[in-house]
Amino acid sequence: MEKRSLLALVLSMAVLFLWQYFYGGLWVTPDHQEPQREERPADPATPPAPSPFVDPGPEAPAPRISTGVLPEDLIERIDEQYESWTVEDERYTLKILSPGARMGSFQLKGFRQSVEPESPPMELVAAKESGFLPLAVDFLRHTEWQTSVRPFDSDAPSKLELSPGDPPTDLSFHTEIPGEMRLTRVMSLNPDSYMMDMEILLENLSESPLEDQMGISFYFQPYQETSRWIAENVSRLHVHQGGDTTSFDTGDIQQGGVLIEPPLDWVAYANNYFIQAIIPMERDNFQVVPRVLDPERGLMQVAYLTDHFSIAPGESLNFQMRLYIGPKEINLLEAAGHNLANAVDYGWFSFLAKPLLRLLNWFNSYVHNYGVAIILLTVLIKIIFAPLTHKSFMSMQNMKKVQPKITALREKYKNDREKMNQELMNVYRTHKVNPLGGCLPMLLQIPVFFALYRMLSAAVELRHEPFLWWINDLTAPDRLDIGIAIPYLGGIPVLTILMGLSMFLQQKMTPMTGDPMQEKLMMAMPIVFTIFFVNFPSGLVLYWLINNVLSIAQQYYINTRKA
Fold this sequence. Notes:
There is one protein chain. A hairpin with a 3-residue loop joins strand 4 (84-88) and strand 5. The chain is an alpha+beta fold. It has 2 domains: 3-21 and 358-562, no CATH class; 31-38 and 81-344, Beta-galactosidase, Chain A, domain 5 (Distorted Sandwich), CATH 2.70.98. The radius of gyration is 30 Å and the shape is elongated. The protein has helices at residues 3-24, 73-76, 78-81, 250-255, 330-336, 350-367, 370-412, 417-431, 440-458, 494-509, 516-533, 538-562; strands spanning 37-38, 53-54, 64-65, 84-88, 92-97, 102-112, 121-123, 136-139, 159-161, 169-177, 181-189, 195-204, 210-212, 214-220, 236-241, 244-248, 257-258, 266-270, 274-280, 286-294, 299-306, 309-311, 316-327. An 8-stranded antiparallel β-sheet has the order 10-11-12-23-19-18-15-16. 38% of the residues are buried. The longest helix has 43 residues, at 370-412.
């Protein structure tokens, strides 16, 4: 392989990695389509108010959200102060509080906040730490009703257990403003899914038309996962419409008013592993407005606003939406429909990453260990690339044979580059040697590598999944705790060191062309890769280690046959 070609290969891999890390984002969904942005200055600070909305007046075309907040004591004494209803499902525990019939907790039974066995279940209602709860219903023109904090009643038992295979269970909560209106919210829970349907029924009890707009507020805050790598697992707002997904962090929302208009498939708050998706069941007559309430905490409000409505005396009007609250398991998201599977996005290499994840899940269904499944997947990929790898090894062997002639030609025509290139091409044609033949398998594996990189970093299926011994989370870097804190590392990256050593051995066994500069560059690659891989997910390091071991075995076989 030519020195320049080899250098270009190494630099290409480095550039791809750095681009993904700093600009593409290891876990960021590429921005394809920008929802409409409403350019307006930031609202001045307003004192706390029970309702998060400001009455826009009868002529205003669109409501605007204030910075008003719910009282802090709404959260401080939940168990002591408020009536509540708890739903126990095989997958989660849901708690609904009487004030506003709002969601006080949603804990995932199959997931923990950290890798430690004693860690509490994963809590998805993280905004309650700041005093906010989702599912707040407000009326823009009747703010005095304070339905977001008004007590709701229900005929449901205080504790309800759902069993797999049961039909959907409806939970009904209602409140009433005497002589004005009755508000009923029905939540339909499916024991076999993280999906739930929500219907809001509004009845006019007065003798005059009820004219208003209704807002349903969801409050989000970064999920409280305890891990030293949490800084790389960013929570963002995602919008899917027109077949594309757009992502916003708090800075994007603060820069300008974001107005999300229909039609849209879903709007969701998610990180690598968990998602809370709002799925409108209407094609139009609504808008979604996100707003940052506390930039330091990452607290945001996402308000689903209905259009202006008028309800005749004695009549009623209902509104429907669907929610998905749970892990970003691709099979579950696909089963949920509404293009929710697009919430799992591995960037440029999604077309490879998603099939690899399905294959990995298939292996795991038999071996029940994702580390072993990664090994099996690596063996399969190696078998697929085996013919190209063999051709590459043979090409390097042939290049080594003609290297003396190449060196002589370069010395002879060192002052005539055009003539030198002509003679080199003649040598390549005569001996049927491709100077880039040794690069081809590595170039073809780069997309597979980055697809695995993104998938193994962000697949919830691998979160907190152990392999063996000290490797207890395949999505986190491997660290062997020796009782002494190593600066910048914590523990010893044993798997990464083994990967570097295997790569060094592979380079020693690989035929060299006799070019001293190229040999130095090739021998430096194990050091460079070891540094790159030190903070990579242990699952990815395991893949590369096994790939190197298989390459060493294949190289040994070829060298033995040549001998």
